[in-house]
Amino acid sequence: MAGADEKPQGFLSRPMTRRAFVGTGLGATGALGAAAAGGGALGYFLHRVNQVERFPPGELERLRGGAVPILFERHPVLGHAVPWRPLGAFPTPVEPLPAPDGAPDVRFLVKRDDLTSSLYGGNKVRKLEHFLAEAELLGRTTLVTVGGIGSNHGLATALHGRELGLRTEVSLFDQPVTDDVRRNLRGFLHAGAGLHYEGGQAAAFLRARRLLDEARGRGERPYFINVGGTSRLGVVGYVSAALELADQIRRGELPEPDRIFVPLGTCGTAAGLVVGLRMAGLRSRVSAVRVVGLFPSNALMVRHFARDVTGWLRELDPSVPSVDVGLGDFEVHTEHLGPDYGVPTQEAEAALRWATPRLTLETTYTAKTMAACLNYCRERSEPGETVLFWHTYNSAPVPQASSLEGLPRGLRGVVDPGPESGP
Length: 423
Ligand SMILES: Cc1ncc(COP(=O)(O)O)c(C=O)c1O
Fold this sequence. Notes:
The chain has helices at 9-12, 28-49, 57-64, 70-74, 124-137, 152-163, 179-190, 201-217, 232-250, 268-279, 299-316, 346-355, 366-379, and strands spanning 94-97, 107-112, 142-148, 167-173, 194-199, 222-225, 259-264, 285-290, 330-333, 386-391.
C-alpha cells in the first residue's frame, strides 16, 4: 500500500472478523445493514492497501542492483513502475515426490518455495521483495504489520526487514498454540520485533493503526504491510512465481501440471498464481485449499485480487496479456480447514507424517493443503495426471531468542520459559 503512511481507517473502525457476523442477534434489516457497512469498509480498505506509489525509473533500477525478475524480463516497462528488490534465491527447484498410496499413476511434484531464502523462506519472500523495495524507496524506517501469534508473514517481515535496517512492529491476534507458533514467537524476539498482543483480530487491526500513529509520534516513518502480505503489490510476487514455473516447464524441467495445490489464507498467493499461469498460457488448474475462516479466504477475494492485479499491470504496461479471471478458473477446497484456523486436523497430521522427513510441513497451512492434495490424488485424479504441491512454508532454521524479554505479558504462558535454548 502506498501503504505506508496511509491509514486503512474505514476498515479499522469496523471490525470484520467472522465472529462479527455470527450470533450478533440482529434482525434481517440490521444484518443487511451491517453486511453493507462491512462490505463498504472492506472495499475502502482494499482500495487503500492496493495503492502503490510511483518512483523515478532510475531509483527503481538502482534498488534492483542489476537483478531482473522474470516478470520484468517479459514486460520491461513494468520495471519502470513496480518496486522490487532481490531478497531470495530463484528459481526455486521442482522435485518429484513419491506417488501417494492408492494413486500409483499420479506424477507428483513439489515446487520448493520453502527454499526461497536461507534467512527465512516460504511464500512471503516473493511478496516482501516488493514491499521492502517500496518501503526503502519511500525512506521508511519501521514496518508495521498484523498477524496471528505464530504469523509466518510477520516473522518473515521482521527477519528480512532487519537485514535492511528496518524495525518491525507486529500486532498479534490469537491462534491455537502449536510448537511452530512457539518457535515463531522466539524467532520474533530474536529478530528484535516489537510485539503487541490484542487477542481478537479486529482489535489487532486497530492496534496496528495506533502503532502507525505512535511510530510517527516518535519521529519514525512507518510502512504498513497488510496481513499475510496481501495487496496488489504482494500479489505481483506470485504472478512472477507462475511465470517462473512456466519457464521451468519450457526448459523441460517438468511437464505442465494438471493441478497445482496451494494454501488459501489471505488469497494473495493463489490469486497471483492464477493470473501468472493464464498470462503464460498454461492450463494448469489452481486448487486453493482454504485454511482460514470464510472471511477473508474465499473465491470472491481470489477473483478480486486476480482482476485487480491484472488491471493494474496492464495499465502500467499494455503488453501484459489481458486475462479475465472468473470463478470457474480455479477451485477452492473448503473441507480441510477443520474446526478453525490453526487447529490441527487428523488428516493434516497424517499428511505431515506422510511428507516427513522429505518436506517440513506445519499443521496450519501446508499439512492441510497436503491432505487435500493426497485426497485428490487418491480419489479424483485421472491416471497419468501431473499434480504439483506448491510448498509455501519456510524450511530454514528459525533463530531462537534465549530470553523472553519483549514478549507481551498475555503471551508469557504460551512460550515455555525454559530451557532457554528454544527448539
Ligand atoms: C506457510 C504459509 N502458506 C500459505 C499462506 C497463505 O498465503 P496467502 O495469505 O497469500 O493466501 C501463508 C500465509 O500466511 C503461510 O504462512
